[in-house]
UniProtKB/TrEMBL annotation, chain A:
Native source organism of the sequence: Octodon degus
Location within or outside the cell: Cytoplasm; Nucleus
Family membership noted in the UniProt record: Belongs to the metallo-beta-lactamase superfamily. RNA-metabolizing metallo-beta-lactamase-like family. INTS9 subfamily.
Keyword terms of this UniProt record: Cytoplasm, Nucleus
Gene coding for it: Ints9
Domain annotation Beta-Casp: ranges: 340-468
Full protein name: Integrator complex subunit 9
From TrEMBL, chain B:
Coiled coil: none
Gene3D superfamilies, per database record: Leucine-rich Repeat Variant (1.25.10.10)
Principal subcellular localization: cytoplasm
GO BP, sorted A to Z: cell population proliferation; DNA damage response
Membrane keyword on record: no
Repeat found in the keyword field: yes
Domain of life, per lineage: Eukaryota
Protein name according to UniProt: BRCA1-associated ATM activator 1 isoform X1
Keywords: Cytoplasm, Repeat
Subcellular compartments: Cytoplasm
Taxonomic source organism: Octodon degus
Amino acid sequence: MVPGKTTLPMMPLGRGARRKNSQLPRRSRRQPAETGRRFLDLRSGEVDIKHPKVRHETVLPVRAPNLTMQYPQVQINHHYARLWTGHDFYPQFPSFATCSKELKECSGHVFVDSVPEFCLPETELIDLSTVDVILISNYHCMMALPYITEHTGFTGTVYATEPTVQIGRLLMEELVNFIERVPKAQSASLWKNKDIQRLLPSPLKDAVEVSTWRRCYTMQEVNSALSKIQLVGYSQKIELFGAVQVTPLSSGYALGSSNWIIQSHYEKVSYVSGSSLLTTHPQPMDQTSLKNSDVLVLTGLTQIPTANPDGMVGEFCSNLALTVRNGGNVLVPCYPSGVIYDLLECLYQYIDSAGLSSIPFYFISPVANSSLEFSQIFAEWLCHNKQSKVYLPEPPFPHAELIQTNKLKHYPSIHGDFSNDFRQPCVVFTGHPSLRFGDVVHFMELWGKSSLNTVIFTEPDFSYLEALAPYQPLAMKCIYCPIDTRLNFIQVSKLLKEVQPLHVVCPEQYTQPPPAQSHRMDLMIDCQPPPMSYRRAEVLALPFKRRYEKIEIMPELADSLVPMEIKPGISLATVSAVLHTKDNKHVLQPPPRPAQPTSGKKRKRVSDDVPDCQVLKPLLSGSIPVEQFVQTLEKHGFSDIKVEDTAKGHIVLLQEAETLIQIEEDSTHIICDNDEMLRVRLRDLVLKFLQKF
Amino acid sequence: MDPECARLLPALCAVLADPSQAVADDTCLEKLLDWFKTVTEAGSSLLLLQENPCLVDLLTHVLDLKPQNVSPRVLSFSLCLAGTFAAQEDCFEYLQQGQLLLGLFGEAGPLSWAAWSVPIVRSGWIRGLRSLAQHPSALHFLGDSGAVDALFSLQGDSSLFVASAASQLLVHILALSMQGKAAGSSSLQGSAWPACAQKIVDHVEACLCSTAAPQVTQALNVLTTTFGRCHNPWTEVLWGQLGPLVAHLLENEPIPAAHSLVDLLLSVARSGPRDMAVGGSSSPVFASADCGLWETTARMLSCLSPSQAGPLALGTLKLQNCPQALRSQAFGVLLQPLVCILRATAQAPGPPGVLDETTEGSSMTVDTLLSSKSACVGLLCQTLAHLEELQPLPQRPLHWPQTLLVEAAVIILKLCEGSVAPSSSEGGRLCGALAGCVRVQRAALDFLGTLSQGATSQELMLQVFAVLLETLESPASSPTVLKKAFQATLRWLLDSSLPPSSLDLGLPAPLFLKELFPVLQKRLCSPCWEVRDSALEFLTHLTACWGGEADFREVLLASEVPKLTWQLLRDPESYVRASAVTAMGRLSSQGLQAASESSGHLEVQQGLVGELLHILSVDSEGFPRRAVARVFTEWLRDSHADVARDTEWFVATVLPMVSRDLDWEVRAQGLELVQVFLAQTLGQSSPHCPYVVTLPKASPPSPLPEVLRTLCQLQVFDFAFRALFDCDRPVAQKACDLLLFLKDKTAPCSGLQEPGESSDVTSVEATLQRWQAGEQGQPLSTLEPKEVLAALRSMDLEGLQSRLAESSDHVEKSPQSLLQDVLATVAVLEENVADCY
C-alpha cells in the first residue's frame, strides 16, 4: 500500500442517479437534503401560560431522511494502493502545486487523496445543545448521531424503535470497521481553501461546507451515542413535557422504520418520512393513524421515481443469471441490511428456475452474521406473512434455508475462511456501495478487467458513474438497478387522498418536476390545497394557530357549578377558580374560602394571594332584535326614533332625548349626556332582551 | 307429449301448487318452461290443456291461493306458463273464459299483490305477456287490461332486467299492433295509428319532451329497439314523426342521455342497408333525403363530447350507405385525439387533408385529454380500440392515414415510457398523464400490431422497431405489456417485409434482430414466469416463420437463446415448461437446437429426445406433457431426422407413456400420434373429397400382414382398444375413428382368415367387455394379427361411433328425466324434513 498514490474521487453524495444512461442528468440525493433541514418549533401557541413551574423549550429537530444526518458525506475514501492507476494532478494544473499531493487525476477526473471525511448535520441554524428530543425515523437516518450526541453539548433524549437501533448500530459498526481497517495518516485540507476550491473542476468545486467535514467516529462514540436512545414501540404514546405527545407509526420502509405523530390536545402534525406502500418484509405502513392531521410534513420520497422496484428486481435477476450462465461473476455493492433481505428472498425463489442452484452466493460484511440473524428475530416488526411463519415455527426469511443448504455463505471479511471457500463463478454481496472502502474494492480490482463479470448497483444512494470513476477504464459490465421502495408520486397522491391532511409541507423539489425531466408533470406532488414548500435553511411557520388549551377542572369544583341552558343543548356556567399550571398541565382548583375578617391585617394578606371572589355581575347573552326594541321604546313613551344601519349593527337614535343607542354584535352602548335616569331606564329595557346568568 | 311425462305431470303440478313443498332449483323451472314451449310449438295448446287438466288446475290454484302463500318462483313460473299456453288464440280464448288470464295479468292480478315487490314476479309477468302477445285477441286484452300502462311504469323499474324486458315488450306490442298496417303505409300518414300503438307512440313522444333524463333514456331505448327489429314502412312514418323531437334533444346543454341517443341514431341508420339488401329498394327510413337522420348525426358528432362521439363515429363509418361528407366528419372525430397528441408533442401531424377535417372540435378533444388523467386514458384507449376495430373492415376510409396512425401509436408509446420530452405545456401534461400507464400502453401496442399490414416508410419502420425495442427492454414494462409488445413485434417482423435473407442489409428487420436477441435473452431469464412464457411463445412463432432464413439462423445461433430455452425445460412453472417444450420442438425441427460446447450435435439431439421423454413420463403437470405429445406428433408427421432414424423405436417408447397418462388430452394426442404413424405405414385414408389432389406416395407401404404384426408388437391395438372405453369421450371417439380406419385398411386381409380360428377372439372380447365395465386393470394377452382382425370385424364400431357422437347428457336431458328430477328433489327435501323430527 502506498498512501501517497491512493486517491479516489470526492463524493459529494450523489444519491440517486436515475437512469442507466449516463447522459441523463439526475437529481442527486443532496438536493432535497439541502432544503430539507427543518425543525418544527412547537413552542409557539396562542395560549400563553404565565407561570409554568417547569419550563421546557421543546424543539424537535425532525429531520428529512436525506439530510446529512442520514448519510455522512463520503469525501475521500480509499485505502488500497493497488487500485490506483492515475497520476499526480499538478502537471496539468501547475497553479495547484501547493496541494499537488492531495489532488490526483484519473481518466479525466480529479480526486482528493485523503482519509475519509464526513459532512456533519447543520449546526449554524440551531444550537444542538438546546435540543431536547431527537426522533429517529429509520436506521438510515441515524448515521450522524454520534456527531450530535458526543460533540455538540446535546443533553436531550433520542427516541427510536429497537430494530432501528440494532440495525443502525450494525451500519455504523460496518462503517467504522471499514475505515479503521485501513488507517491513513493525514487528512487533505489544502484543497479546502476557498480560493483553490473554486478553481477545481466539478464536483470538487461544488462541494459545500467542506471546512466542517470530519473524520469518522469511533466505536466508543457509537456506543455512547446509542446509549442515549430510548426505545419505543409502534403506537406508543410518549409525553414530552406535557406539551405534546409523540407516537411512532410503522412506515413500511425498513425494519422498525417509523413515521411520527406529534400532537397536542387540539393540533396534530404528522411527520412522514421514508415510507413504503409496497409489500416487502417490514410491517405495512400505518395510514389510518395519519388521518385528521392539521399538517403533514412529507419527505423521504423515492430517489428514482421513474424506476419501478419490481421491474428493477426483474432486471437484477435477469442480468445476474445471464452473467453467471456465461461463467462470469456478479458483484452487488450493498448495505448489510435492508433491500438485501428482499433480494435474497427473490433469489431464493429464482435460482432454481434459472438453473443457478449450484452457484455460490457470498455475503461479506463485518456484520453479515448479525444482520442475517437480527432479521429473523424481529418478528413483531415484520409483515403479516412473515410474522405468521414464526408461529409454525419457521424462520421468517428464507435466507435461513439458503444458509442451511450452503447456497448462501457469509463471512466477516475476505480474509480467513472466505479465501478457502471462494469458488467462481459466484455472486458477492458486499459493501460499501460507494465503492470507496470495504471489501467491495477488492472485488472491483479482481473482476474489473473481465467483460464476463458484472457489477450490479442496487442502492439508490450513490451515482454509479461517480462510484466507478476511479476504476476506469473498466471492462466488466455495469448494470444500474436502483431499488428504492419509498413512496413515489402516484403513491403519495393516493396516500394524501386517503389521509386528507389540511396542509401538506414538503421540500421545494417535490413541488416541481425534476429539472432534467421538466416535462414529467407526474413527477411532483399534486394535491389540494397546494403543498407548502420550503428550501434549505428556511424556518417555516406551520399553517395553524394554537387556539385552545385543555384545562382540567377538579371534581369538587365541577360539583359546585350550576349550568344554565341558554339554548337547547348548550348550557353555561360561571366558574371562579384558581388556575394551577405545572409541566404544561393546567388545572382549575376551587378557590380557598375567604378567611373570616378577624383582623384587618390578616384579611389584607389573604386578599393578596387569592383572587377576589366577590359577587360578579351576571353575564349576558343573546341578541337584541332592533324592530322589537324600537316597538318597546315606543311603548315606553319614546318617540321620534330613528334607526340607522351600520357596518357592525344598528344605531337607534332618540332624537328628542338626544340619546344614541349603539347596538353591535357583542356590545351595546347607550350614549346620553348627563341623564343617568334615562340611561338606567334604557339599560333596563335593553336587558329585557338579554339572558342573564 | 309422451305418455310417461303425461303420467308424471299431475304429481308435478301438485308439488308446484303445494306451498309447503318448495322447489329448490330455479333452473328446473326454467327447463320445464322450455319443455312446455317445445310441446306447445309442436301441437295444440288447447288439446294439451284438455288432456292434462292438472295444468289449468295449477293456474287456477295459484290464483285462488292467496298470492302470499305461493312462492314467488312458482308464481313467476305460472305466469310464464299461462303466457306460453295463451300464445295460441284458441287456447287464449279457452283460458279467458274462466277469467284466468285477467286474474293473472289484469290490474287486479299480481300488480296488487304483495309478491309484486319481488323482481322475479314482475319479470314473470312481463315474460308471460310477451309470450301471449301473438294475436289480435291478445292485443285487445293488453289494451283493456291496463297492462300497457303498467309497462310504462316498469320501464323505470329498479331491476334492470325487468326494466329492459318492459321496454322490449312495448316494442313488441307496437310491432304487433302495426302488423296489419305494414302494407298500406299511406294510411298512417294521418293519425291513423291503432289505439294501442298510438298510446305507446304518445307515451314515447311525451317522454322525449320531458326534462327528466331517465324518461328520455326510456323513450330512446324503446325507439332503438324498434328500429333495430322492425324494418317496415311504418317505421319511416314513426321516424318522420319523432325525428324532429330527437333532433331537438341536441339543443339541450348538456345533451340528455347521450349514449342512448347514439344507440338510437345508429339503430335507425342500420335499419336501412339491411332493408336494401333484402328488398333491393332503398331503405324506408332513408327513402327521403329530408328525413334528417344524417343532419342529426352530423350535428351530434360535432356537439357530443369526444368520448361520447367516438362510438357514434365508429358506428357511422361501419354503415354502408352513408354520405361521404359524414364519413369524413366521423373519421375526423376518431382521428382527433391522435392528431391532438401529435400536435402537442410537435410531431408532424400527417397529410394536411386529414388535419383540415379534424380542426373542428379539436379544442374540445384537447380539453378532454388534458382535463384529467382518467379522461385522457379513457379517451385514448377508446380511440385506439375503435381504430383497431375499423382497420381490417372493408368500410374503412379509402384514404387511410397509415403514416399518421403509426406515428401517433409510436408517440403514445413513447409518452407511456416517459421517453419523449415535449416542449409544449400540453405535451408536458400529456406526458404526466400517460407516463407509466399500462392501459394505454396495451391499447397502443394492440393498435400498432394491427397497423403492421399497411405500407410504412422505412424511416417510420425504424421508429416502430425502436419503440418496440424500448418497450421490450424497459424494466418498467409489466408482463402484460411485454406480451403485447412481443405480439406487436412479431406482426411487424413478419408483415413488414420479406424474410430477412431476401432483404438488403440496410433494411430494418435484420438489424433489429441483432438488437432484439439480447433483450429476448434477458426476458428468458426474467423472474416473472409470464414474461418467460411470452418470450418463449414469441421465439416459437418467429422460428416457425423464419427458421429457414440464414440471417435469422445466424443471429439465433450466435445468441444464448437456444441454451436458455433448453434450460427452461426444467422451469418450476408448468406453463413455461410447456412453452419451452414447444419452442425446443420447433428449434429442433429447424436444426437450431443449442450446440453444447462439450458434446456434438447427435448427443444434443438425443439429449433433447431424452429430456422430452423424461418430461412426458414424470412431469406432474399436464401442460408440459401435452406439449411433448404434440411435439412428438409433429416430429413424426414432419419426419424429423431423429424420429425417422428409428420410427418404430420412437413409437414403442412413446406409446406406453401416453397411454397411461392421467391427462385425457395427452392420451388423445397419443392417438393422434398413432394415427400419423398408421397413415405413414398403411397410407393415407381415402380422401373424403374426390377432387382432393394427393401427392404420389414416395414409397409404397409395407405388406399388410407385416404391418399388422409390427402394430401388435408396438401394442398399438392394446392402446386403441383401451382408449375405446376411456372415460373421457373425446379419447374414445378418437380411438373409435382410429380403429375404423384400421378396419377399413385391413378389410382386404379379412378374407384370409380361416373360419375355425374364431375361438381366439372370445378371450379378446371378454377382456374388452371387462374394460367396458371399468376393469381397466385387466391385461390383454399378446395379440396376434388374426385376433385383431377378428376383433375389428366383430365389433360394432360404427354403432359405437354414433353413440359417442351424442352428447354425454343425452339421456339426462329428456323431459321425463327432468320431471323425475323435480319430483325426486322434493322427495329428498321431505325426507330431510322428516329427519329433523
